[in-house]
Amino acid sequence: MQIIIHESPEKLAQSAAQWVQALLIKKTKPVLGLATGSTPIKLYKVLVEKHQRGELSFADVKTFNLDEYFDIDAKNPQSYRSFMKQHLFDHVDINPSNTFLPTCKKGQDPREQGLAYEKEIKEAGGIDLQILGIGGNGHIGFNEPSSSLRSRTRIKTLTQQTLKDNSRLFTPGEYQPTLAMTMGIATILDAKYVMLMATGKQKATAVKQMITGGVSANCPASVLQMHENAVIFLDKEAASELDDHEYYEWANEQNNKLNESLGFFHNF
Ligand code: PGA
Fold first, then answer.
1. Residue 264: C-alpha distances to residues 73, 241, 256 (Å)
2. Per-residue pLDDT tens for 170-228?
3. Ligand 1 probe mutation, 34, 38, 235, most atoms within 8 A of CB
4. Residue 136 CA: which ligand 1 atom is closest?
5. What is the CATH architecture of 2-262?
6. From ligand 1's centre to the CA of 260, what distance in Å?
7. Which of 26, 154, 163, 185 could make an SS bond with 114 (beta carbons 3.0 to 4.6 A apart)?
8. Would you say 162 and 139 are in contact if contact means Cβ atoms under 8 Å apart?
9. Is the beta carbon of 135 within 6 A of some atom in ligand 1?
């Protein structure tokens, strides 16, 4: 795991955008895994700005989102497709038919829908870079604590904590879905690179557990310890419960020097 601690969420977003940019420039048919939630909004803003300045094109990009609410209309403003349109898709040159989310409507079989999503990812050549946030309970995607570490795209029941954390996004009395389709943990582990972003004090305990706790279904993000190319972007607050702060910062300085002299920093 590479742990990069940034001064602020804004600096973190700039740095994360460089990774996405490197992928889009290096690969002819890049496949990007996307996340929703408050954390990646700043990253998407930077990507849109880069696109508007002519520095970045999404014309040949395929995207796969981590999750989507069960039985939600794509046009519903609470759907994750609406979120992606609002924050990224509508502002860049991506072909909407190249954007995928794991959907399942009432009457459809979630198992079949999950298998179909896995197949689509495979047929696209696999995910090159998966963007992730982390829940206060350590979830990645909607893989809540107790999720199988070998899980694949499937339907999940959200925990009370996740429902409470996300209730800020719903108006009082508005229906809040309790079920979602989500990539599995094995699906996420298959991505060539994973980039997890966490900001704010409310993530500090989950971040500590992810990095320094044992690998456990109790903190699904801890499975990233087993990923070959996992980079964790933190702001100071999210990193505040880590003991080895100084080591991570120093290791990054050394890494940057090495990368400069060797001429690479990721090998998409
Ligand atoms: P947040 O959610 O970015 O809104 O904090 C992250 C997550 O639940 O994965």
1. 43, 31, 9
2. 999 999 999 999 999 999 999 999 999 999 999 999 999 999 999 999 999 999 999 99
3. 38
4. 8
5. 3-Layer(aba) Sandwich (3.40)
6. 33
7. 154
8. yes
9. yes
* Cα distance between residue 107 and residue 138, in whole Å: 31
Who's near 139: CB < 8 A, 6+ residues apart?
145, 147, 159, 162, 220, 221
Q: How far is the CA of 198 from the centre of ligand 1 (A)?
A: 8
SS3 state at 93:
coil
Domain ranges in the chain are: 2-262
Quick one: pLDDT at residue 171? 93
Q: Which atom of ligand 1 is nearest to the CA of 166?
A: 4
The Cα–Cα gap between 248 and 200 comes to 18
Catalytic residue numbers?
67, 137, 139, 144
Comparing C-alpha atoms, which of 79, 47, 45 is closest to residue 169? 79
